[in-house]
Amino acid sequence: MNAVTPKSAPALPRESTRVRNDLFDRTQGCVRGKPRWFEVSWYFVKCVFFLSPIPWPQAVKRALLRRFGAEIGRGVNIKPRVNIHFPWKLRVGDYAWIGEEVFILNLEEVVIGSHTCISQRAFICTGNHDYKSADFSYRNAGITIKDGAWIGAQCFVAAGVCIGTEAVALAGSVVARDLPDAMVCSGNPCVPARHRWEV
Fold first, then answer.
1. What total number of domains does the chain contain?
2. CATH number for 65
3. Is residue 116 part of a domain?
4. What percent of the chain is modeled with pLDDT above 90?
């Protein structure tokens, strides 16, 4: 009985797409803000004290973030397994809570107001690409989460978004546009549904 030779997938011609990832320039549109050795130092500290499941004391984590350039207010509570990309591009107000496995991809500045809550596995993402650009160039933008806001578990917050004061983004929402003050918002895309304090 003869063995069957599997057919290999045909190679795509070079002209099959306008997109040219080989032309992507990571130095354009993204100012990293610190030298490479500083980034590497932060990576090791992050692995030990932030990505770890060990519940290190909050005072230690706050002190380390400040040491690496973050502005951290009083009483900030950061749960285990939190991934902060660039602490020197992070500002957090007083008594903010950052839940377990939150990912803050802050290629641009992220401002988190006082008395905010960012729940488990939320993704705060300042990174983006220009899909109309053949070289897939960066289109990053900062994110602001104002005082008293609550970002529910597993929310995605896109680059350039501003979350209003005391606004709520319910769990699993995709926040691609600004949310108004004191409104409960949900969905994909996330839209206002009702006032937070209405009876």
1. 1
2. 2.160.10.10
3. yes
4. 77
